[in-house]
Write a structure and sequence with these properties.
The longest helix has 17 residues. It contains nine helices and nine strands. The protein has a domain of 150 residues: Gcn5-related N-acetyltransferase (GNAT) (Aminopeptidase). It is of the alpha+beta class. The relative contact order is 0.16. The structure holds coenzyme A. The site of coenzyme A has 19 residues, from strand 5, helix 6, strand 6 and helix 7.
Length: 239
């Protein structure tokens, strides 16, 4: 269940000294929520433990995380998540009204390592649709977002997706730069797509991923990423 059927060959079993890229597990969910809140502060609703747990069991969904082994201990993360800001207290009041509070939400399993980036996508027939990709603020511009996107593309191709699509805020130039680097092109605009501020979404899509041009571009970018961010790829251990 938690292992993808291939597609992460270049990364699934690959452990670096400090980082590992792997399928997301239940024990990562609290940190994935933390990353989501940090990356998309104005977005509502944020995923909950049970919604993400359900996603991990959804046959159409795939979630990938990058975790660091020499980072803040999971205990510190949980303490942070556990410390209640006013906003979190308000969220709890809201949360009290939802299904989980009435029917019991189980206690999340303890985290094992520190998650610094998350990506997820849905696969529908021959199209993969990226639902989320985010890196913790403190770890931006270190090749993590790109590593996640490379893995999303690898897994999606392995699952026979022909193209990958996504929506991105019109104002989100950083993310657009990442997608453009990997050959995503503008395919349309969804007006007032985001409910928090009514912002439009840009719909972006890859070319057919089996095309020679996509493949040669992708393989070249992968190589460049491996050379530039060598520390991510240093194998110290194989599971
Ligand atoms: C978008 C995001 C995932 C990029 O993650 P990251 O780990 O910082 O990205 P990387 O270091 O791997 O950068 C990869 C490429 O992304 C683009 N990029 C990332 N940050 C950028 C910035 N601040 N300005 C311009 N381009 C940027 C560049 O093309 C970069 O390639 P380069 O280094 O050759 O210029 C990250 O900024 C993030 O989490 N943002 C908030 C969440 C979000 O907006 N997600 C996208 C939703 S559609």
């Amino acid at each position: 269940m938690l292992e993808f059927e291939g597609g992460l060959q270049s990364s699934k079993f690959r452990k670096s000294m400090d980082y590992i890229i792997r399928p997301m597990q239940d024990r990562d969910i609290l940190q994935a929520i933390e990353i989501d809140r940090e990356a998309f502060p104005t977005q509502w609703p944020h995923p909950t433990y049970s919604s993400l747990k359900q996603e991990l069991r959804n046959r159409l969904a795939r979630y990938i995380v990058v975790s660091g082994r020499n980072e803040t201990t999971p205990a510190a993360v949980e303490q942070r998540i556990g410390s209640k800001s006013l906003w979190q207290r308000l969220s709890q009041v809201r949360h009290f009204l939802d299904h989980d509070r009435f029917f019991g939400e189980e206690k999340p399993p303890p985290a094992k390592d520190y998650v610094i980036g998350v990506a997820g996508f849905w696969i529908m027939v021959d199209e993969a649709h990226i639902t989320t990709i985010a890196t913790r603020n403190a770890h931006r511009r270190q090749g993590i977002g790109e590593w996640l996107l490379i893995s999303v593309i690898d897994v999606a191709m392995h699952l026979s997706a022909r193209i990958i699509t996504l929506e991105v805020r019109l104002s989100n130039k950083q993310a657009q730069a990442l997608y453009q680097k990997y050959g995503f092109q503008k395919a349309g605009v969804r007006r007032s797509y985001y409910s928090d501020n009514g912002e439009d979404a840009l719909l972006m899509t890859t070319d057919t991923m089996t095309s020679a041009s996509f493949q040669s571009h992708f393989q070249q970018l992968k190589q460049e990423h491996q050379q530039r961010w060598r520390a991510l790829y240093e194998v110290s251990e194989v599971t």
